[in-house]
Amino acid sequence: MLDNGTWRWIGAFVLLAVLFLPCAGSAARLKDIAAIGGVRENQLFGYGLVVGLMGTGDDVKNGFTRDTIANLLSRQGLAMRDKTSTLKAKNVAAVMVTANLPRFAKTGSRMDVTVSSLGDATSLQGGTLLMTPLKGADGEVYAVAQGAVAIGGFSASGGGASAVKNQTNVGIISNGAFVEKEVRFDFERSKMLTVNLYQPDFTTVSRVSAALSKSISGIDAKLKDASTVVIQVPASFAGSVVELATAIENIEVNVDTPAVVVLNEKTGTVVMGENVRISTVAVAHGNLSIQIKETPVISQPLPFAPQAGPGAQPFVNRKDGTIIAPGGQTVVAKDTAIGITEEKKQLMLVPRAVTIQEMVQALNAIGVTPRDLITILQAIKAAGALQAELKLI
Questions:
Q1: Which stretches within the chain are classed as H helix?
Q2: In which band, very low, low, confident or very high, does the pLDDT at 29 lie, cut at 50, 70 and 90?
Q3: 63 torsion bin: left (phi>0), alpha (psi -120 to 50), beta (else)
Q4: Nearest CA to 119 among 60, 171, 166, 172?
Q5: Cα–Cα distance between 280 and 79 in angstroms, integer?
Q6: 262: how many CB neighbours lie within 10 A of its CB?
Q7: Alpha-carbon gap, residue 219 to 210, rounded angstroms
Q8: pLDDT of residue 2
Q9: If DSSP codes are grouped into helix, strand and coil, which group holds residue 80?
């Protein structure tokens, strides 16, 4: 008979295995499983200063914050290079600023930036990022960021206690950067488009090619590898490549998924794809529990017991753990109790499963928790009866 906790675990596993997995024959838009080559975001980053903190900034002794402040003030006409040792500001923090330059971003458009503390600042709450150039991988400046930092949390501390909510040394500036330079890409004059799958798969990419040829007349789609389809822009779409891209990304394709079982031992989560199969196998699983309990026992000397000699100390016999105390001394010993419990489970036959539903029913028949199921699936895989890849995360 299964208890309520076991049934609750089994119910959660069924939900994960059945409800949240793609159904057989389900279709996805091409824009959700692939990207058109060359159309992507670009990563930017920069180094800057956040000012206006309430004593939660960097200790300027770290060096780089002190030198940055000195350089900043020098550019403002204040000679501080020889006086950096006198700086003791705690309202300034050195930060790294990161952002993703959107696709086809134009000069003057805005984007969000993430501000992360670089030194030992405890919080960026209430701070303002000073003008920070953001560079791309080629070293060119593509945007400039500045503005008030929002961290979505707080930190407070006193003499002997502190309270923190969320991450306080990382913040976001919404629309905090202006695009100053565009990434040149004449998409409209493209003669060829490339569709790249996020998850390479020969079956899926073949279906993509077939769906393109069926949905768009006159299109020439060629397979390049397991993730790439090369499309020659038809003459009918000359000068209107955007319309062709719009038609391509809305085509629906049946996605073929590999047989994979994902196991997370930390949380006890088990997720398996629809193509997972299991052969007939017999399973017996019994939980082994070991409990160790130690209770302190105090041994007092009898009245009028002789005093211990000078320097005499209790010692432990390594063979049997007996504590021997010369003379009348108080001894603290430990009473250790060990209990071992092992469930007596019978060998059960798990039948061959053809569908995901049969697979779940077969595993539920064992009557174990998902955490035990992780070990059982690993054993079934080792026995060669599980036709799927096991991934541990």
A1: 4-14, 30-33, 64-75, 202-215, 241-249, 356-364, 370-382
A2: very high
A3: left
A4: 60
A5: 81
A6: 15
A7: 11
A8: 47
A9: coil
The pLDDT of 217-232, averaged and rounded, is 91
Contact 166, 153 (CB under 8 A): yes
Counting every residue written for the chain, the total comes to 393
Question: What's the burial of 60, exposed, middle or buried (CB within 10 Å: 0-12/13-18/19+)?
Answer: buried
Half-sphere exposure of 109 (CA within 13 A, CB side): 13
What is the C-alpha to C-alpha distance for residues 377 and 371, in angstroms, rounded to an integer? 10
Of the candidates 309, 344, 349, the one whose C-alpha atom is nearest the C-alpha of residue 329 is 309
Its sign, for the CA torsion 317, 322, 327, 328, is positive
Which tokens sit at 204? 């899926």
State the angle between helix axes of 356-364 and 4-14 in degrees (0 to 180), rounded to the nearest 10. 170
Which residues have C-beta within 8 Å of that of residue 281, sequence separation ≥ 6? 349, 350, 380, 383, 385
- Rounded CA separation 224/196 (Å): 10
List, for residues 161-179, the tens digit of each pLDDT value.
777 777 888 999 999 999 9
- Non-local (6+) Cβ contacts of 88 within 8 A are 60
Over residues 312-339, the pLDDT tens digits come to 777 777 766 677 777 777 777 777 777 7
Q: Specify which residues 262 forms β-bridges with.
A: 271, 391
